[in-house]
Amino acid sequence: NAGVMQNPRHLVRRRGQEARLRCSPVKGHSHVYWYRQLPEEGLKFMVYLQKENIIDESGMPKERFSAEFPKEGPSILRIQQVVRGDSAAYFCASSPQQAKKETQYFGPGTRLLVL
Amino acid sequence: AQTVTQSQPEMSVQEAETVTLSCTYDTSENNYYLFWYKQPPSRQMILVIRQEAYKQQNATENRFSVNFQKAAKSFSLKISDSQLGDTAMYFCAFTAADSNYQLIWGAGTKLIIKP
């Protein structure tokens, strides 16, 4: 039983480039959440998706950030034209559709460094 | 809006001692869930324990137990017989159905277990 997979684990980008972060949820889980963790801080909610639908993107910046969870394949968090302030750890979590849907299981995170 | 407060930025205890980490929260919801997550130096986010608000009985997982005081909106974590491997950041988190189960996080407590 594979847990939540995220790749890459580390990503270095120069200002202005694009960053693509991928998340494969636990098999059978249809709910995906993305969180951002700045250094020395707790996590902050960004976006909540179900298959092919964005349910809640209230925590995601309106510009440069987008997320998707296609019918086939992993969920993608995309950051366009990255800036130094985007440097953070980005965590993906998944939860089941029915029983214990309030409990989220986390991937190892992607550490993004913007130079 | 829900908030989660962890008032202890850092704690340290000797190995084998018992330690209690504090967490308070604020919500107008009646049906919600509370969690403690552990983040070791590897930065992986690991679920330690969960508590349903409608249950009066405190959750227990081996050496980890909680003291859930619903009226006081308090949710402390007790670690018994602490081990070196317990050294980590500990985050308290809240979720409720009306917010699509997005997790609201405290700022974390850094716990150091000394040999």
Structural commentary:
The complex is a heterodimer of chains A (115) and B (115). Chain A has 115 residues and is an all-beta fold. Chain A is 0% helix and 49% strand. Chain A is built from no helices and eleven strands. In chain A, the strands form two sheets. In chain A, strands 2, 4, 5, 6, 9, 10 and 11 form a seven-stranded mixed beta sheet that branches. In chain A, strands 1-3-8-7 form a four-stranded antiparallel beta sheet, with no helix packed on it. In chain A, β7 (65-68) and β8 (75-79) form a beta hairpin. The radius of gyration of chain A is 13 Å and the shape is globular. Chain B is mostly beta strands and 115 residues long. Chain B is globular. The N and C termini of chain B lie far apart (41 Å). In chain B, 0% of the residues lie in helices and 52% in strands. In chain B, strands 2, 5, 6, 10, 11 and 12 form a six-stranded mixed beta sheet that branches. Chain B has no helices and twelve strands. The interface between A and B is medium-sized, with 25 and 23 residues.
Strand content of chain B: over 45%
* Overall mean pLDDT of chain A: 92
- Major sheet details of chain A: 7 strands, mixed
Give the mean pLDDT of chain B. Answer: 94
What's the oligomerization state?
A: heterodimer
In short:
The complex is a heterodimer of chains A (115) and B (115). Chain A is built from no helices and eleven strands.
SSE map:
The complex is a heterodimer of chains A (115) and B (115).
Chain A: E1 5-7, E2 10-13, E3 19-24, E4 31-37, E5 43-50, E6 53-56, E7 65-68, E8 75-79, E9 88-95, E10 105-106, E11 110-114
Parallel strand pairs in A: 2-11
Antiparallel strand pairs in A: 1-3, 3-8, 4-5, 4-9, 5-6, 7-8, 9-10, 9-11
Chain B: E1 3-5, E2 10-14, E3 19-21, E4 24-26, E5 32-39, E6 46-52, E7 60-61, E8 64-69, E9 74-79, E10 88-96, E11 104-105, E12 109-114
Parallel strand pairs in B: 2-12
Antiparallel strand pairs in B: 1-4, 3-9, 5-6, 5-10, 7-8, 8-9, 10-11, 10-12
